Amino acid sequence: MRNRSFIKHYYIMLLPGFLWLLFISIIPMFGIAIAFQDFNPGQGIWKSTWIGLENFEYMFSLNDTKTIFFNTVNIAVMKIAGNLIVPLIFAIMLNELRLMVVKRWVQTIVYLPHFLSWVILSGILLDVFSYTGPVNGLLNILGIEPVLFFARADLFPFIVVGSDVWKEFGFNTIIYLAALTGISPSLYEAASIDGATRMRRIWHVTLPGLRTTIVLLAVLSLGNVLNAGFDQIFNLYNPLLYSTGDIIDTWVYREGLLNMQYGLATAVGLLKSVVSFVLIIVSYLLASKFANYRIF
Amino acid sequence: MGKKMVMVGMMLLLAFTSACSSTGNEENETAENNSTPGVVEEGPADPFGKYDQAITLTYGKEVDPTDKSLPAGDTPENNQYSRYVKDNLNIDTKVTWQAATGTNYEQKVNLAISSNDLPDALVVKDTQLRAMVKAGQLEDLTDAFNRYASPAMKSYMEKTNGVSAEAVTFDGKMYAIPSIQVHSDGVHQMWIRKDWLDKLGLEPPKTVEELENVAKAFVEQDPDGNGKNDTIGIAGQQNGGRLYANFLESTNNTYGLDPIFGAYKAYPGYWLKDDAGNPVYGSILPETKEALAKLRDMYANGLIDKELGIRKSASEPVVNGNAGIFFAPWWMGYGPLPDAIKNDPNANWQAYLLPLDDDGQFNAHMGAPSTVFVVVRKGYEHPEAVIKMLNLLIRDESKFDISVPVGHYPLRVPMSYMDESEYSAKALQEVLAGTKKPEDFTDPGYKLLAADIENVKKVKKEPYDNMDIQYWDPQADLGVWSRIYSLLVGSSSLQQDYNKVYSLLYSQTRTMESRWSNLKKLEDETFLKIIMGAAPLDTFDTFVSDWKKQGGDKITEEVKEYVK
Q: ipTM of the predicted structure?
């Protein structure tokens, strides 16, 4: 009896999330039909003309499609790598700090940008990297010619990845710090008695202790490979940067909403969904295999 | 963690589809049922007739976020203009949603179209009008227009030789009320700091070569005298702006480089006739390549704003007094110049039809007379309401207190004779010179002229024929100054002869609906890269062949059919 009511509570707690999922994610799925239609908003999904795979054919004939898929994967993979490695190094460095006050302060300060939206941050970035901005001021002191960062397609992915890592590493550090508390201090004591230096202790105790967390985060981020960050790129880019900076989401937004190419944009969005779906399944399989991770 | 990821994943994947999936079927069906007009009354009706019972009209509103002119207590929904409409016509105007001027507003309209969630009336642009007609979302305004349009509105439309009527007529039915804009909105002139020229002992540049020299002097010789190397020769468009006006957006291209293209007889973005009389797209012609080569040169030499196409706000260097030259239509007195003279009362911006081409001629690509349209949702009970509101606006605009911009008038679109600004400028000059009297101008179609004549001496100081900024008194009434300065400085130059180039077509053909956005993107990207040195000049040739292959040839054929 006690056991059953316990379960009931769980279900009630699940309800808001389930409703959210239903209304925000499941019901809008019917919109996918647009990918197979010459969509007419006046007639709605039920009455619009069905045109089969025509949108997909046009999609694959466009040079853009290759570019945006490449850009998306390129930027996302770099982001995933950066967001795994930088916080890891940072967490280990923080962990070695003796002064708790300093540690807390540092932790809080690097955590802050996580709470700012890209609309605000992009404005700051555009100023900082502008032709007359502080970064070029610094280059000027070093005797380097000013660089028009937002006209350089070759630099753009690095600005995107760099600023994303800068924004998020404080937040991601916390996951590692939490995992670090799980490592038994006796291991460190034993290591130092055996004469291990600080670097040795990190190498032989800390890193192995974090291994499952690292593997788990790496594997789970697989499902995100096609999400390279709409908010950020949309607020930073311009036509000069399309060749390396245009990603699936920004392209779908431009074609679908601004140019009213509903069918084509939905087709591209659908392709992205399908690929992402496969990747999510794969990442869960891998996660449960290598990190013993399960949702239920 | 895991569930969050699934949700976030799905949300992102479907973010787009959700925007389009509210089907709105029920709504649409009721709309169809209602749309058959029950009783069709015959004969003309009173264009200014007040409704016995108050009616409600909902609309989406474009607001300028920098506009602080509304008095305390007034809102974009409830202000002197909406109350004027209520008092005179008994129409309650309600704002369903509002969005910032420009792209934001366009996106909001697109969203309303794609979700079929429309307010009673909207101001839309050509591509949106076509999409809405195709989707069957609009009320047929033919009868309402015939019965309710005021004689002034009808005469404005007639003056366009049927072009504006054609723009809104589909299968013989009129689906929108077109704006009728002064054609000077399409002529982009050179605005230049005359005080800088004077200081450096220079003349307004007549040719592109002279323009280069002046721009060079502006960049290198510290014309603002602050001892810093911080001046820009020629200001350029902002991120999202246009390098030049095109056939779909043919007017009011502020900060574009249009006149420099014109000096090379290049009209990118326009449909022209080649020597054999066949339609050809201006952007793929050798003249355009020539102009691009020159612009690339000028940019590399630092004469054009380094942050061309990247800046968030193109007006910033003009307002801050850092730029010496920019290109824009006649109405710059409305903005950015009021802010520029607030920062520096000596900023003597003057307008010229320059630079000239090899033959000594100024070439201007001309805009379409109608670029924005008022549409009414299918099934709205009072389609004539918007026509009455526009009638009222045309009749009474000159009486309004324009310290609150007339953009706050619900569903306002510009409507006037197409030569209004030049005609008014000439009239003002003649009145100031004393060669004509205010009574000589009686055509009520020039709706603001009487007020302009009355106000001109408030802000223009003697000598009346010298337009330099020191002979103006903007402080007396900035609202009046904006208009009169725009007319006397911006429109006066348009009285001289210049070469007017029209596009063969100002709207989309069938294939353009699906292919144009891709071609346009190709064009924007390539041209900007060429000018800014991110791609070699010969990329232009690749662009031309790509453009033709990716649908350009087919579209050219369609334009040929259309023009026939």
A: 0.83
